[in-house]
Amino acid sequence: MKQTAVLYPGAGVGHVRPMAELANVFLKHGYDVTMVLVEPPFKLSDSGTTAIDRIAASNPSISFHVLPSLLALDFAAPGKHPFLLMLQLLHYYNEQFEAFLRAIDRKSLHSVVLDMFCIDATDVCVKLGVPPMPASHLIKELLEHPEDEMCKAMMNIWKRNTETMGVLLNTFESLESRAVQSLKGPLCVPERILPPIYCVGPLVGKGAKDEDKAERNECLEWLDAQPDRSVVFLCLGSKGTLSAEQLKEIAVGLDRSGQRFLWSVRMPAGLELELDALLPQGFLERTRGRGLVIKSWAPQMDVLGHRATGAFVTHCGWNSVLEAIVAGVPMLCLPLEAEQKMNKVCMTEDMGVAVELEGYMTGFIKADEVEAKVRLVIEGKEGSQLRARLAALREEAEAALQEGGSSQAAFAQFLLDVDNLERNETLGRHV
Question: Where are the membrane-spanning stretches (predicted)?
Answer without folding.
Answer: none
